[in-house]
Design goal:
The protein folds into three domains: 38 residues, Laminin; 39 residues, Laminin (Ribbon), CATH 2.10.25; 112 residues, no CATH class. The N terminus is likely disordered. The strands form six sheets. The chain has a seven-stranded mixed beta sheet with strand order 11-12-16-15-14-13-17, with no helix packed on it. Strand 1 and strand 2 form a beta hairpin. The chain has 255 residues and is mainly β. The chain is built from one helix and 17 strands. One of its GO terms (molecular function) is heparin binding. InterPro entries: D8C_UMOD/GP2/OIT3-like, EGF, EGF-like_Ca-bd_dom, EGF-type_Asp/Asn_hydroxyl_site, NELL2-like_EGF, PKC-binding_NELL.
Length: 255
């Protein structure tokens, strides 16, 4: 009796297992809809393939050569690169020189693909975005022959450079071409305390350098001494001069 009851209980479970096996086998075809009857009821289901996202940016896409392709789920987006304008599929270079650009007032702006180049005007130095006047092209001339070291100062006729304003100067013409670099005796260059450069002239590669100007005392040594800037402009020298600390003093010159 107990055996029959046990067998009766196993029968429904066995049928259910068979139906479950059918269900599992049928679901392997994920593109088909099925109807399976279980105890008079109809079970309807449908399976779809779940595909991994395709990165179109790694293959063929419609983005312009001057655009960036960004993959998104199920699609992609094209964005023009900096310096270009368009919808991503078609990108046109922007001429920055016709609008707002970063070039200095004293620089030329040249447009190129995707960007622009700044170059300082002749007579100016810098990176194009910051340009300053090159002193080799912006200076004042000192041409008085009485500045030469060979000029002996007549009594009571001493001159002084107190009228000089701060700036770059070049010795030209009758004044010679440069400052002397050896001691100049007092009472030369049409003054009492003769100014000379206590140090060598720089090379072009040195750029602007500091040097000391000694204004010779009557006996020996320097009555005054000041620091100035000197620059080699390839074929000539220029000096950033200031007023001497006392009078009568003058900057001397030589050939």
């Amino acid at each position: 009796m107990m055996s029959k009851v046990a067998n009766a209980k196993k029968t429904p479970a066995t049928k259910m297992e068979k139906l479950q096996n059918v269900l599992r086998s049928e679901t392997t075809n994920r593109h088909t809809a099925f109807k399976i009857a279980i105890r008079g009821k109809c079970l309807v289901y449908k399976c779809f393939c779940i595909k991994a996202d395709i990165d179109e940016c790694k293959g063929n896409h419609s983005c312009h050569v001057n655009a960036t392709c960004m993959n998104i789920k199920g699609s992609y987006v094209c964005t023009c690169n900096p310096g270009y304008i368009g919808n991503g599929s078609d990108c046109t270079d922007i001429d920055e020189c016709k609008g707002n650009h970063s070039c200095h007032l004293n620089a030329n702006c040249t447009n190129n693909l995707g960007s622009h180049v700044c170059e300082c005007h002749p007579g100016y130095i810098g990176n194009g975005r910051n340009c300053t006047a090159d002193p080799c092209y912006h200076y004042k001339n000192l041409s008085d022959a009485s500045r030469k070291i060979s000029y002996a100062t007549p009594p009571y006729s001493e001159l002084c450079d107190s009228v000089l304003t701060l700036g770059w100067y070049r010795f030209v013409g009758a004044a010679g071409t440069k400052m002397p670099t050896t001691r100049v005796p007092a009472y030369r260059c049409s003054t009492t305390y003769s100014g000379w450069l206590n140090g060598a002239h720089p090379t072009v590669e040195d750029g602007e350098v500091k040097r000391v100007v000694c204004f010779s005392a009557r006996s020996s040594g320097c009555k005054y001494a000041i620091r100035i800037y000197v620059k080699n402009c390839s074929s000539y020298y220029i000096y950033k001069l200031v007023q001497p600390p006392g009078c009568p003093s003058r900057f001397c010159s030589t050939d």
